[in-house]
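May I ask for an example protein's residues together with how it folds?

___
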Amino acid sequence: MTSATPTRPAGPFASPAPGGAPGASPLAGATAIDPIKLLKKYAWLLAGSLVAGAVIGVGAFFLLRITYPIFRPAALFEALPVQDSLVNPIGATTTREEEMERFMLTQAAYMKSESVMHSVVNDPRLRAQAPKWSAKFESGGRFQPSEAADWLIDKTRARALPGTYIIELSIGWKDPKDAHALVGLVRETYLRVLNEQRNLINVPQREAIERSIREMDKRIKDLQDTRDLRLRSEQIDSLDERTNEAMQGLFNVLGQLTGVRMNIQAVEVQIKGYQDILNAPGGITYADDIREAVENDPLIRGIIQQITTLKTSQAGMLQRGITPEHRTYQATQSMIDSWEQTLQTEREKLLRQRFDAIVESLMKGISQLRAQEADLLAQREVYSKRLNDLTRLKVELTNIEQQITEFITARGGLQASLEELRQMDPLASAARIKVVQVERIPDKPAFPNIFIMIPGGMFLLLGLTGGTVFLREMLDQRVKGPSDVTIIPRTTLLGILPDASEDPDQPKSIATVFRDHPRSVTAESVRQLRAPLAKQLKQKGHRTVMVMAGMPGSGATAIATNLGLAFSASGQRVLVIDANFRRPGVHRALGLQEAPGLADVLSGSGTLADSVQAVSESLHVLTAGSPAKRAFEALSTDAMSGVFDAARQQGYDLVLIDVPPAIVSSDGMAIANRCDATLLVVRALNEKRGMVARLRNQLSETKSEFLGVVINGVRSAAGGYMRKNIKATHEYQNTAA
C-alpha cells in the first residue's frame, strides 16, 4: 500500500517556478493587463460612468427636444410585380424576387435624383408651403435653388422596407409642417416626372434588341439541330465512348501486328540458318535433333538390328573355331557390309527428307504469318480511318457547341440590356408604383429618442472611460504585480511581499516582521520566498547572495534581514553583511551597534570574527562599520573577496549582502562580480519594467548568477486578486487548531 505525501495549498504569495514561464504558477500571467483585474479595480469608476452616461443621455434628450427636434413624415409606395409575360423570358437568368429588388432600389434612387429634386425646388408652391425651410436657403432676399436641391438630395431618405414591396420616402426637418410639405412635393414631383417621360420611351431600340434576341434564338436552335442531326446520322449515343472504343481497337491491332512481325523475323532467321547449312562447302551438317529423329526411325532401327544379328553370328562362328578365312564367315561379312552400305544410304536419305520437311514447314509458317500481317494491316487502316472520322466529328461538334455558347452569352447580354430598358421605362415604372400612404403631419419628433439617447450616453461614456483606463494601463510601465515581471524576457519571479498596510497584523517594523510577527501574512510570504531560493542555492552550491534594490525605498534591507531570520530559523548558519556604505540600515533594523563592521575589516583594523555581532545563535550580522573608514572603492577590491572567503571558512551556510540601490550607486555591480548569486528587489508602483529589464541584463553580465526578482509592497488594488487571499491566509494562520 502506498501513500502520497499531502502538499500544502499554494497561498497568495506562492513563488512561481524558475523562469517565470506562463502557467508555471498562479502568479504568472501571459500579458501585462488582465481584463478581469481591470474590471475589479475600476468597477466603481465604470459603474459611475454608466450612471453619468444615463444622466447625460437624459439631459441631451431634453436639450435636443427643445433646441433641435427632427420631425420625419413619410409617404409609402407599393412596388407591383411586372407582368408575367415580361418575367423570365427564354434565356433570362433573373428571378422575380431579384427583378423586384432591383426595381425597388432603382425607384428609391430615382425618388431622390437630381432631376426630381431640381423640379421640387423650382415648384412655385415650395416657398408658400414650406416657408421656414425655404428661408434657410435665401441669401440677399433671393432663393438659392442649387443649395436647396443639394440639401434635399442629402437629407431625403428613400429606402425599401425589408421583407416587403414597400418603398418609404421621408425627409427630416425641425418644423413638422414644412417637413410634411417637402415630402408631399417630392412625392407629387416624382409621380409627375414618371408620367411626363412616357413619350421618351426608346421603342425602336427595344424592338431592335428583341429582334436580335429572336434571331439569336433561331441561330442557337439551328446549331442545336445540326449537332443532333450529325449525331443521329453517325448513330452515336456517346462520342467519347465511340472514340475510346476505336482507340482501344487500334491499340489492340497494333499490339498484335507487332507480335506477328516479331514472329516473322524469328522464322526468317531460322530459314536463313537452314539455307546456310544447305549451302555449306563441306556439305550439310544436320542438327542433333534431326539425327536423333532419324536414328529412331523404324527402318533405320531394323537395319541396325539386322547388322547386329549378323555380327552376333560372326562372333559365334569365332567361338566355334570358324576362322575369318572360312567361306561361311566371309559370306556373313559380305552381308554385314551390304547392310551397312544400305544403312548409310537410308540414313542420308531420311536426314535430307527431315531437313527438307523442316524448311518446308518454316516456309508455310512464314506464309501464314505474312497473311496474318496483311489482315492486321487492313484492320489498322479501318480503325485509323474510324478514329480520324470520329476526331473530325468531335472537332465539328466542339465548334458547334462553342458557337452555341457564344450566341447564348451574346443573347444574355442583349437580354440584360432589354431588362435595363424595361426597368428604366417610365411608362412601366409609373404603372408599377402605387401610393399606399400619403404623408401626415407628425405629432412627435423622430429625434431625439429617449430609448436611444440614454443607452447611447451610457455606452459612449463607458467606452470613453474604459478606453481611457485601458490606455492608462497600457502606458503605465510600472511594476504593479507579478504579471508585470513575468512578461519581461528571461526574468524569474522569486516571490512577492504584500504592502505592510494590508497585513491584518499591522507590523510596526517590516525589517524584523519574520521574528516579531511569525504568523503574519508578510512573514508567510517570506517563508514562501525562502523555499525556491533555498532550492536554487542548494542545487548550485551558492553561499554568498547579494540583495540589491532597484531604487531607494524598495525595501532591499528589509528583504535581506527577513531572509536572514528565515534561513536561520530553518537551521542554517547565516551571516548578513551591510555593504551599503552610503545609507546603512541593517544595524538599526536589528538594534545593533554600527561599528565595528565591514569598513573596519576592509581597512585591516579588524577581523571578521571580531567584527560580527550575534542576533541569535545561528544569525550573525556584519554591519557597515565605522563611518570614517567607509571607503566605497574598497568594496571592489580583493579584500571584499577575502571577507567572503573568511565567512566560508568560519562555517556560514549562507551569506546575505545588502548593497545600495542600483540606480544611485555602482557598489552593487562591483560586489556582484565577487559573490555567487544576486537577486533584485523592486517595489510595486515604484520601478518600471524597462529599468528592471536593464538591471537584469547588467546583473546577468556579472560573474555571479542572477536568481530572479522579488516584488515588495504589492497592493491588492494593483491587481485586485490578493485581498481575499490575504484575509484567508491571516485567518488560517491565527485560528487555533
